[in-house]
Amino acid sequence: MHNSQPRVLSILVLHGPNLNLLGQREPGIYGSLTLTAINKLLAATAEELEVKVVPLQSNHEGTLVDAIHQALGQHHGIVINAGAYTHTSVAIRDAIAAVNLPAVEVHLSNIYRREEFRHHSYLASVVVGQISGFGAQSYLLGLQALVHHLQVASSS
Ligand code: CA2
């Protein structure tokens, strides 16, 4: 039997290392918006989608791992820009696999048009999908895709 109670989806948005510098350095690669501005756009998109978003930025791998663990039971899914940890972190990959929450990987830049070392993502094989290269829009597209994925999953 279907549960007819409406439930508000809650999405954890994780921003990895150095993304706190957005808008202050390298606007040619990462755009001119600050992280605060991106979080405001995410909040506006969340309101339109009638979901809740909780953003968190950390420069520390363990803090990101802890946040992924704590998402279990608190959030329905994760949008993650793991920054440079995308290309190095088995620990973040394992945390996403362990909690088994649907996650979408996003990147401001198109990692496949950049240096070879950015072409490999440890997260790619444990996320629902990846959006890369659309600047701040990558986050909004990632949020939309994740919410759609969760709504399709809960209606079947
Ligand atoms: O394109 C992305 O979103 C990245 O995840 C950004 C990471 C990079 O290591 C990934 O390969 C791709 C770097 C984030 C650094 O952000 C800065 C922002 C302003 C100034 C300097 C760095």
Structure description:
The protein is of the alpha/beta class and 156 residues long. It has one domain (10-155): Rossmann fold. The chain is built from five helices and five strands; from the N terminus they run E-H-H-E-H-E-H-E-E-H. The protein has helices at 27-30, 35-49, 61-71, 90-99, 137-155, and strands spanning 10-15, 52-57, 77-81, 103-107, 129-132. Strands 2-1-3-4-5 form a five-stranded parallel beta sheet, sandwiched between helices. The longest helix has 19 residues, at 137-155. The radius of gyration is 15 Å and the shape is globular. The model has no long low-confidence stretch (mean pLDDT 95). The structure holds ligand CA2. Ligand CA2 is lined by residues 18-19, 21-22, 25-26, 30, 81, 83-84, 86, 107-109, 111, 118.
N-to-C terminal Cα separation, in Å?
Answer: 11 Å
The unique ligands bound to this protein are: ligand CA2
- The unreliable regions are none
| Mean pLDDT reading | 95
Strand content: 15-25%
Counting DSSP E segments of at least 2 residues, the number of strands comes to 5
Number of helices: 5
As laid out across the biggest beta sheet, the strand order is: 2-1-3-4-5
Order of helices and strands: EHHEHEHEEH
- CATH class descriptor: Alpha Beta
CATH architecture label: 3-Layer(aba) Sandwich
Biggest pleated-sheet summary: 5 strands, parallel
Global Rg = 15 Å
User: So, the CATH homologous superfamily?
Assistant: Dehydroquinase, class II
In brief:
The protein has 156 residues and is α/β, with parallel strands linked by helices. Helix content is 38%, strand content 17%.
